[in-house]
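Lecture 7 notes: from sequence to structure.

We start with a single chain of 547 residues. Read the sequence below before looking at the structure.
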Amino acid sequence: MPNLKAQYFHLRNLLVVVTSLLLSGCASMQTPQGGPKDTTPPKILSMTPKNQTRNFNAKKITIEFDEYFKLVDESKEFSISPEQERAPILKVRSKRLEIELQDSLEKNTTYTLNFGKAVADINESNVVKNLSYVFSTGNEIDSLSISGNVKSSLNDEAEKDVTVLIFPIERDTLFGKKRPSIYTLTDSSGNYKLNNLRAGSYKIYAIKESSGGGDKIYQQVSDEVGFLKDPIKVDKNLENINLQVFKEVASDFRVLDRKLANDGIITIISNQQLKNPKITVTDPAKVDVGKYVHFSKTNDTAKVWLTDFGFDSVKVAIQSDGKILQTLNFNRGRKDTYVRDVTITDNAGNGKLNPFQTYTLTFPFPITSADATKITLLEDSVKRTTFQLVKDSTDFLKYYLRYPWKQKRTYDIMFAAGTFTAIFNAKNKEINKTFKLETTDSYTTLVYNVSVPDSSKNYIVQFLSEKKDIIKSFPIKGNTKLRFANYPAGKYMIRVIYDENRNEIWDTGNVKLGTQPEKVWYLKALLDLKPNWEREDPLAIPPPPNE
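Now the structure, written as tokens:
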């Protein structure tokens, strides 16, 4: 006869062990650790009716995705072409997107629903780019296409996420006024393709919208634009319809930013590069006396230092070529106080001075006097007194310290409190600087024997950093020899501007006038200049692109 008591105790012990294991497992549960960031947008599982449906007569379209999603700026991103008076309604239903058509459809017509960047996943906002749905109410679907590439006109770099759009020629007047219904976005290589187009003539544009944009309506103040002047006739698939985007010069003067800071400096930033710029205090007129004005190299930013603050409000006139463009008002309270910290910056970056440059001191305020006796110069801890302190002849923000600097020496400079006196009798606190003179072996020289394709035209040869910052520009006409001397060893680039109007600067384009930017050419090879080199190469400038 079975031992029931033994079986009972065996079963009870087994339950205790299992329960303990379960509890132990629960107690050791950890918060899930973060894995790789999700970079994959939702994937389409199905479209009902199917994409590219002919003889379409449905009132609702359903697109199912593999994950939950959200709609982002659908009013900006979504469009239907041809447009309808009553726009379709988009609804999110779990993992499905439902599009309800509110208006009647034209017969024998191809419709394209373009979602732009409207569909994105819930967590990481990964966008389903260039999502579209196409159907025809007739037996045929428009199947023509336009494709090409978009680059920056000056930097010659591919432009991604730029909107390429077309308007039928009879509706071209809507550019910049109304959102387009036929558009696409460029990929990471700047390539684009517009599909399902009907035969006809179109104007084509590219818009690189500033951050915060996205309405696909060109805003001259903030966006870049590219276009082809002449319409393109679409009667077959068109390839290599390439565009270059550029920033237009603003047609109307506008002040972008203006402020009277707590250090008493007035800053004015405009949207244009002014010609022969001038700032005048018109009211009270006496405040104009003794003021200091400093313009940026591009003449679009001005800093103004007033020496008379006995006013409640002041009017400042901005002039270009003798013409007053705008008058600004600045207000202050009688009890307002200003803190002026006379700091000193120098050109010994990372504690090293370029042996081909003069040691330069730059200040935030106009300096009215300097006392060289309050400067202590140590060369390897030995005091030196044979230096010279020289004021810049034109720039009231700069001084130079001249001395026969030597390599392999350490220089310590102490500027005692009150060495420099700025406007309003503001003085510097004690400031110490330390640097060494870099060896000349760290520098390089490049010589180019330049030949031009047309000696009757003008060119600008530019020496650029690897990041395409301009280091040196040479306006030239005809064959010549150019010398880029004594620059730090490193990687550089060469850019040539075809200076059509001979004004020695790169000129941008204009949509209204139909003018394109001046063309540029890059020497494709990146120049890797070694230390202590003097290299001489030929530079054959080709004819302008597309000639």
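The chain is about 5% helix and 40% strand. Keep this in mind for problem set 3.
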